[in-house]
């Protein structure tokens, strides 16, 4: 069957697809095809397509309908994907198992389904998991062109923070000295190194540091990454005055490490300080803590006050991007 399609050069395909999607003109029941250096995008209404586009009739294949978990359940499910591991957060065990069964039965590429069984706890920031389907809690997560191998059972990792990690690492310049004080498996360190920084990641969790080293190799940046398993307080003397940029993503207790951050900071250093505070004054406590630790040795300028996400009722997870310039 012939279908109306927008024909564009292949190099313009993604930009055109986005414009047609924004106008709700893409015929989702048909496949987008590539032929002779052109992309053929099926549309629902050729008369609504902007005149600048070339519309042709073409025989294209129907898209196979994929079964999703929501199609198999009597309730609207919520879940997160981490590679081929799916994470759910259900208090009711029967509902949790029904969701896991639907995920496995669906067309999602999944090998394991886990349910959160505790909050993040301990100095190594791990949580308990209930395995509802499958066996392995290991995964390879991909975000913004990087790959991260990890094991949910032994390390902390949140896919929800991908956008925030990208916001920070997009600021990294080639040649920077980048220091992550609580590095985990490297979701800040690896993209910083890929942007040309010399990066150091410290974590007290030995499993996380082993994955950090593996991920540096996996992403081709092992020559620019140093991974250290230790308390950052015990590392700061070795890197005194070294850092151009510091990440302090330990929002419940980052203030306890500001003395180490000040020791690590170079003459002009940006500190990305994460905090969890009441919505009435989300940034004030962190800014006061940074100033108390850094002044008068450094002049402190808060360049960005950024809300990352809601954390709990009336509490928010925030980030302060603070520039420390050594005082004359």
UniProtKB/TrEMBL annotation:
Residues 79-326 form the SAM-dependent methyltransferase TRM5/TYW2-type domain. Keywords: Cytoplasm, Methyltransferase, S-adenosyl-L-methionine, Transferase, tRNA processing. PANTHER family: TRNA (GUANINE(37)-N1)-METHYLTRANSFERASE (PTHR23245:SF36), TRNA METHYLTRANSFERASE (PTHR23245). GO terms for biological process: tRNA methylation. It comes from the Archaea. InterPro entries: MeTrfase_TRM5/TYW2, SAM-dependent_MTases_sf, TRM5-TYW2-like_MTfase, TRM5/TYW2-like_N, Trm5a/b_N. GO terms for molecular function: methyltransferase activity. This is Class I SAM-dependent methyltransferase. The lineage of its organism: Archaea, Methanobacteriati, Methanobacteriota, Stenosarchaea group, Halobacteria. Pfam families: TRM5-TYW2_MTfase (PF02475), Trm5_N (PF18093), TYW2_N_2 (PF25133). PROSITE patterns: SAM_MT_TRM5_TYW2.
């Amino acid at each position: 069957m012939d279908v109306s399609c927008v024909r564009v050069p292949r190099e313009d395909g993604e930009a055109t697809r986005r414009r047609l999607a924004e106008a709700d003109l893409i015929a989702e029941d048909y496949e987008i095809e590539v032929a002779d250096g052109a992309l053929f995008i099926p549309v629902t209404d050729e008369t609504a397509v902007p005149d600048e586009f070339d519309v042709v009739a073409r025989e294209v294949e129907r898209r196979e309908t994929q079964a999703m978990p929501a199609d198999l359940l009597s309730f609207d499910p919520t879940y997160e994907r981490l590679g081929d591991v799916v994470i759910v957060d259900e208090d009711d065990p029967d509902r949790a198992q029904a969701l896991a069964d639907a995920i496995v039965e669906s067309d999602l590429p999944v090998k394991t389904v886990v349910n959160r069984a505790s909050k993040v706890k301990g100095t190594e920031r791990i949580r308990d998991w209930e395995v509802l389907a499958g066996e392995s809690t290991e995964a390879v997560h991909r975000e913004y062109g990087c790959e991260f191998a990890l094991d949910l059972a032994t390390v902390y990792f949140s896919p929800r923070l991908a956008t925030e990690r990208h916001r920070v690492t997009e600021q990294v310049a080639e040649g920077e000295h980048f220091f992550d004080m609580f590095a985990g498996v490297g979701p800040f360190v690896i993209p910083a190194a890929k942007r040309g920084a010399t990066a150091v990641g410290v974590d007290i969790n030995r499993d996380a540091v082993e994955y950090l080293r593996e991920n540096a190799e996996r992403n081709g940046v092992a020559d620019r990454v140093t991974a250290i398993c230790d308390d950052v307080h015990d590392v700061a003397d070795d890197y005194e005055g070294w850092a151009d940029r510091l990440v302090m993503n330990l929002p419940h207790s980052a203030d306890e490490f500001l003395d180490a951050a000040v020791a690590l900071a170079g003459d002009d250093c940006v500190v990305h300080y994460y905090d969890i505070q009441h919505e009435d004054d989300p940034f004030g406590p962190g800014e006061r803590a940074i100033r108390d630790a850094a002044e008068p040795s450094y002049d402190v300028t808060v360049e960005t006050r950024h809300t990352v996400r809601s954390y709990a009722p009336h509490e928010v997870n925030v980030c302060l991007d603070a520039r420390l310039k050594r005082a004359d």
